[in-house]
Design goal:
The chain is α/β, with parallel strands linked by helices. The chain has 13 helices and 14 strands. A hairpin with a 2-residue loop joins strand 3 and strand 4.
């Protein structure tokens, strides 16, 4: 299963990247422990919100995750976020923090590109009006492409000579060259499979090399487009233009500044707000609650948010961003428990303590190795005590709740 999944957040200045990052990392519950051994300055723990297994089995009152949180069956599963800095034109030439931006990017398994869809900031993030945000999307893809192309073309002659001399496969030669981008053999094979009638590597011309890199980017850097500031009057036409140009892309409409405001008002007890939904309640809606009454100015602001954002779009879109990224990566939640009948851990009555995000189709033995290390497994069980084979795979509703029995003293 390898290292932790990393989701990179990119965006030009003033697009709303910092606001979105704050919204994604602001768990509803204050968590003191994180599952990641090291958190670099430009990394943060985000929380993917899912419906917890505790709700399905009606044991939500006993659910207390080791990491993340669970509130009334809504679980926040920690996931690593990478705040990629230095996003300016010509980053591939080293402009601004370009080299850092591009080298940081290699660690990401998926990108969330925060796009100012209002068109009120230019390529540098300066205030303007009528800017075409399509340029930001095209530019980001072009920067990554030019960076990888430049690195590869610089030594292409020696790559081909070595390829011929060692009689290596195209997959192996490319893996050696693209391994620095956290690309494994499967990633390279998947890339080459996307190109019909692919000639031998030593016959690739410039056009074919470029084609291979484009396909590699599709596999290595699947991108979710966060079309931010969706409630601005100029946003509608830009959203339509982007969706028409990129029909295959995951596009999520967001208003991250609205999400931050609503969470702040909820923490101050002015409103009751369920993130990811259109629902806001005030003292007027819940007269018997402990919510504070709103003054006229705040009441008007809440009404505008309901009309212009929540009722119109269904939510602020921020919660849906990580869900879209996880869908693109084909990850599913897998719960590991000590007692498969009560779903409890090693001690106590708390249930579903541990949840990991795992690629659909992963073998259960790979999950055991990741969680428990190189121990001898006596048996693997799923719900109802049903025995599971080591090479059986996981899917939603299939082997996604597991218990591993270890041979005493086994290693």
């Amino acid at each position: 299963m390898g290292r932790e999944t990393v989701i990179g957040l990119v965006g030009k200045p003033s697009a709303g990247k910092s606001t979105t990052l704050n919204a994604l990392t602001d768990a509803n519950a204050k968590i003191g422990a994180f599952p990641f051994t090291t958190i670099d300055p430009n990394k943060a723990t985000g929380y993917l919100e899912i419906e917890c297994a505790c709700k399905k089995f009606d044991v939500s009152d006993k659910c207390k995750p080791t990491y993340g949180y669970c509130q009334n069956g809504k679980r926040g599963v920690p996931i690593m976020l990478l705040d990629v800095a230095g996003l300016v034109p010509n980053a591939h030439l080293g402009r601004g923090l370009g080299n850092k931006f591009l080298s940081d990017l290699t660690e990401a398994d998926c990108l969330i590109h925060i796009v100012d869809v209002s068109g009120t900031t230019d390529a540098e993030g300066k205030a303007t009006r009528g800017y075409d945000p399509l340029q930001d999307i095209e530019w980001l893809q072009d920067e990554i492409f030019r960076w990888i192309l430049g690195n590869l073309k610089e030594k292409w002659g020696s790559i081909v000579r070595r390829h011929i001399a060692t009689k290596s496969s195209s997959v192996e030669t490319l893996r050696q060259q693209l391994g620095g981008y956290y690309a494994n053999k499967q990633t390279i094979q998947k890339t080459l499979d996307l190109i019909p009638d692919l000639p031998p590597l030593n016959e690739w011309d410039d056009e074919m090399i470029g084609n291979v890199i484009r396909k590699f980017m599709e596999v290595k850097f699947p991108t979710v487009l966060a079309l931010n500031k969706m409630d601005h009057p100029d946003s509608d036409k830009n959203v339509s233009k982007i969706i028409l140009k990129y029909p295959e892309s995951k596009c999520i409409l967001t208003s991250s500044i609205t999400e931050i405001l609503l969470r702040k008002l909820a923490s101050q007890k002015y409103i009751q707000y369920e993130s990811g939904t259109e629902f806001i309640d005030t003292k007027e809606d819940l007269p018997d609650s402990d919510l504070k009454p709103l003054d006229d100015k705040l009441a008007k602001r809440i009404e505008n948010i309901r009309d212009l954002v929540l009722y119109r779009f269904g939510s602020t879109g921020v919660v849906q961003l990580l869900q879209a990224a996880v869908d693109v990566l084909d990850l599913i939640p897998v719960y590991t428990v000590r007692n498969i009948h009560t779903f409890t851990g090693a001690s106590g009555s708390e249930v579903f303590r541990n949840c990991s995000l795992v690629k659909r189709g992963t073998s259960v033995i790979s999950i055991a190795r990741k969680i428990m290390g190189d121990v001898t497994i006596a048996a693997i069980e799923t719900v109802g005590g049903v025995k599971v084979g080591e090479e059986d795979t996981v899917d939603v509703g299939k082997n996604d709740i597991l218990s591993f029995k270890i041979v005493p003293g086994g290693n």
